[in-house]
Automatic annotation (TrEMBL):
Its cofactor is Fe(3+). It holds the Pfam family Dioxygenase_N. This is Catechol 1,2-dioxygenase. Keywords: Dioxygenase, Iron, Metal-binding, Oxidoreductase. It comes from the Bacteria. Belongs to the intradiol ring-cleavage dioxygenase family. SUPFAM superfamilies: Aromatic compound dioxygenase. InterPro entries: Catechol_dOase_N (IPR007535), Intradiol_dOase_C (IPR000627), Intradiol_dOase_core (IPR015889), Intradiol_RC_Dioxygenase (IPR050770). The keyword Endoplasmic reticulum does not apply. Residues 138-166 form the Intradiol ring-cleavage dioxygenases domain. It comes from Shinella yambaruensis.
Length: 308
């Protein structure tokens, strides 16, 4: 280019920045990337122009983002946690899973899905190490939106222990404690044994915790069990079944609780006819997962193991 006769237009004022950056990105080949980056730059610049950060505030914000990355490794995912407490994960979930075809509603994946839980037989207990808490018998069916049973569906289950920690956060728990994969039977049924979940705080020892404290927010999640239910020819369901008070559900720090996925956790004070060893009281929860037809996919796990 002949810079002498046609000098490039240089930025001289605030209003020049957005059109100049958009022009610089105008040759992006991928149309979806071009759309996303254009809207991102437009909104980012609008946000900056509206809030007018000081240089110190900008440095602090960049440092916060750097720390989110530095705190993320194969055992802990602060990036997912940040997206969750900002409501971004729940918004993405609702955009992509509206539950309008009668399927079970979804909920955010969260940062603690490993993807490598052992395959179990129906009836197995996923409490692999000494785990406090009341026994829970969880059962139900995987069915289509027409009510027909889905055999051979995979249910990948994980939950925190009643002390409020996932096994990868807690060296006293055995590898894959409170994690397991179950396959639905010919009539769509699945069943497993566990411990009744408790509410727990999300990790607050990193930059997300700094933000939550600055906002005077409680870090609590209501008690729940996570499920990924997948079957060929069906859209994969990523969800959580909740067991908690209405107040705890409404105060979910990551905005994941929905009424349709609150389970009926029933307390029993007489011995279980099939499992007389279960101490009293124990709980049962029966929940049928309804899948809609679609593409079966699995999410990329945010973490991949437990620190040994
Ligand atoms: C969870 O349910 O495992 C979770 C979700 C979002 C943030 C932290 C934990
Ligand atoms: Fe959880």
């Amino acid at each position: 280019m002949d810079y002498v006769s046609t000098p490039p237009k240089l930025i001289t004022k605030e209003a020049d920045v957005t059109p100049t950056v958009l022009a610089a990105m105008a040759d992006t080949d991928n149309p979806r990337l071009k759309e996303i980056m254009t809207v991102l730059v437009e909104h980012l610049h609008q946000f900056i122009l509206k809030t007018r950060p000081t240089e110190e505030e900008f440095e602090y914000a960049l440092r916060w983002i750097v720390e989110i990355g530095q705190r993320t490794n194969e055992f802990h995912n602060e990036v997912v946690l940040a997206a969750d407490v900002l409501g971004a994960s729940t918004l993405i979930d609702l955009i992509n899973n509206d539950g309008m075809q009668g399927e079970t509603m979804s909920a955010l994946l969260g940062p603690f899905y490993r993807g490598d839980a052992p395959v179990c037989a129906n009836g197995d207990c996923i409490a692999r190490s000494q785990t406090p808490g009341a026994t829970l018998f969880f059962s139900g069916r995987v069915i289509g939106t027409d009510g027909a049973p889905i055999a051979g569906a995979m249910l990948d289950v994980w939950q925190a222990s009643p002390v409020g920690l996932y096994e990868n956060q807690d060296e006293t728990q055995e590898d894959c404690n409170l994690r397991g994969k179950f396959i639905s039977e010919a009539d769509g049924r699945y069943h497993f044994r566990s411990v009744k979940p408790a509410g727990y705080p999300v990790p607050t020892d990193g930059p997300v915790g700094v933000l939550l404290r600055a906002q005077n927010r409680e870090p609590m999640r209501p008690a729940h069990v996570h499920f990924i239910v997948s079957a060929p020819g069906h859209k994969t369901l990523i969800t959580q079944i909740f067991s908690d008070t209405p107040e705890a559900l409404a105060a979910d720090v990551v905005f994941g609780a929905k009424q349709q996925i609150v389970g009926n956790f029933v307390m029993h004070t007489a011995p279980h006819p099939d499992y007389p060893d279960a101490s009293l009281p124990f709980y049962t929860c029966e929940y049928d997962f309804k899948l809609v037809r679609g593409k079966s996919t699995l999410p990329v796990p945010p973490i991949s193991g437990k620190k040994s």
